Amino acid sequence: MDVTFTVPAGFAGEQLVAFEELRVAGSPTVVAEHKDINDAAQTVSVEATTPGGPVSTVTLTTETSSKTVTPGTSVSDVVTIKGLVPGHGATGSATLYGPFASRAAMRCTPAHAAGKVAFKPANGVVRTPSVRVNRTGYYTWVASTTADSRNTAATHACGLASETTLVRKSPYKTPVVSTGFSSAGLPFAGRGTVSRISIPALKVNAGTSLVGIRKGAMNVPGKVARTGQLDRSAAAGDLIGTTVIAGHVSDRHDRPGAFWKLSKARPGQVVTVWQAGKPLRYRITSVQQFTRTKKLPARFFSTTGAHRLVLISCADRVRTSGGGFHYRNNVVVTATPIGG
């Protein structure tokens, strides 16, 4: 038997499935039935039509303007749109989320939004207004267009590789770090500057200046009571990269410097640095020594990877027959942020 159904208003764009029951006339008894919600042969799709014509399916592909940038750079989203019927009121927006410590940590929620911009949808390539990124870490865009009388809405998933930008400090060559004697320092203020470092277990409590690299060597402050934070390294509290702080073990007369006892550091001890008046706490995870005849491993000066704090000084004092002395090794202490 052919049975005709009239689809009522309100089901545009939906799928309907026909069920059947066979009953004895005048009886509630069901003799046979067919009720399969997944039966493709019984499924009908209701066309999404409007008085203005059929609704077009809009698609978009996206790509961030830059894969890697330095802090303070502006980035935008590049959106390629297809299938749009123009002139019916659709709008576009793109939200930049971040920063995150890794791609796996990305979450596209309002709490993680770093900026949102609007754009006018059009078929082809549309470049959105830009958003300035100041903090290091991973950022990701999510672009979308709204539906209107002739177009479907369009968007994409969070955390696409094509939409991800890494904001990092520029990589730099591994410097020589000489901390056995005093050398010229370059103390100056700047963003992310640590003002003081404390290691209670070692009785370390020293002021800190921001220092640079000159002729391939880190400019550890000349005053041995102070330590130096390398300006090219990550800022304390960043999500990625290594913050490098170096200090002298002694002065030219072998009187104690800020890191006199750094070689006695042990895993588990707490390091606190103060930045903009805020204490940031780290826990020591390793203590290693390396000969001073070679540069320290480049991994201690990385501007990417999980954030950590590296402290550098000298160790293994050797006295000469003439009453002099020198230090044979560098001691490198690595610490990771304490959550909370």
Defining key terms:
340 residues; mainly beta; Immunoglobulin-like; Sortase, Chain: A; 3 domains; eight-stranded mixed β-barrel; five-stranded mixed sheet; 26 strands; 0% helix
Question: What does the model show?
Answer:
The protein folds into three domains: about 15-45, no CATH class; about 55-165, Macroglobulin (MG2) domain (Immunoglobulin-like, Sandwich), CATH 2.60.40.1930; about 195-335, Sortase, Chain: A. Helices cover about 0% and strands about 45% of the residues. It contains no helices and 26 strands. The strands form eight sheets. It has an eight-stranded mixed barrel with strand order 17-18-21-22-25-26-24-23. A hairpin with a 5-residue loop joins strand 25 and strand 26 (about 325-335). It is elongated, with a radius of gyration of 32 Å. About 35% of the residues are buried.
